[in-house]
Amino acid sequence: MSARHVAEPAGAGQGARVTAVSSSGSHSFSKPGRESITLLAGLGVEGDAHAGVTVKHRSRVAQDPTRPNLRQVHLIHDELFAELAAAGHAVAPGELGENVTTHGIDLLGLPVGTLLRLGPEAVVEVTGLRNPCLQIDLFQDGLLRRVVGRDEDGGIVRKAGIMGVVRTGGTLRPGDPIGVELPAGEHRPLERV
């Protein structure tokens, strides 16, 4: 028996897909949209400033540059953009720094260790939640409180996407399908990485 099982994408019907792909070779906040990106096993997005075996985000490099890079790929669900638009914030794919924009899948509800099959070849293992920082308010004033809030019990809710590491490389394009393979055993909820 397999240690994993294929599942219908959380909160979705058939049609979970990639809607945009983005990358940037510099440590800019936003990433320009691309026709395609190439995911490299164990590294991240080819040519992206955050690709690498060890941490590349400036704040984490300052803390300990030898730590493993659990943030090789950043994914955001495009349904968040509709929610932000309703609150008066116009945000387009790539503008919050994500590499992959998705549709039809509850990214935030996935457990740690979920494998996302992106397109015909690539596999990304989900490591945790993006921890949004104050740069989001520099991009658009008041946006941080829209992507980080509190639940009814006072717990922090982070909505700015998830992070992952590339297990199998491949080229990814808008329109590519997304498959979900949940880990076996007890599912651990995502925490910030």
What's the layout of helices and strands?
Elements: E1 4-7, E2 17-22, E3 33-34, E4 37-40, E5 44-45, H1 58-63, E6 73-77, H2 79-86, E7 100-103, E8 115-118, E9 122-129, H3 135-139, H4 144-147, E10 148-150, E11 156-158, E12 162-168, E13 170-172, E14 178-183
In short:
The protein is mainly beta and 193 residues long. The chain has helices at residues 58-63, 79-86, 135-139, 144-147, and strands at 4-7, 17-22, 33-34, 37-40, 44-45, 73-77, 100-103, 115-118, 122-129, 148-150, 156-158, 162-168, 170-172, 178-183.
Write up this protein.
- The protein is mainly β.
- It has a single domain (23-183), classed as M1 Pyruvate Kinase, Domain 3 (Beta Barrel).
- It has helices at residues 58-63, 79-86, 135-139, 144-147; strands at residues 4-7, 17-22, 33-34, 37-40, 44-45, 73-77, 100-103, 115-118, 122-129, 148-150, 156-158, 162-168, 170-172, 178-183.
- The strands form three sheets. A nine-stranded mixed sheet has the order 1-14-8-9-12-6-7-2-3.
- β4 and β5 form a beta hairpin.
- The model is unreliable at 8-13 (pLDDT under 50).
- It comes from Streptomyces gougerotii.
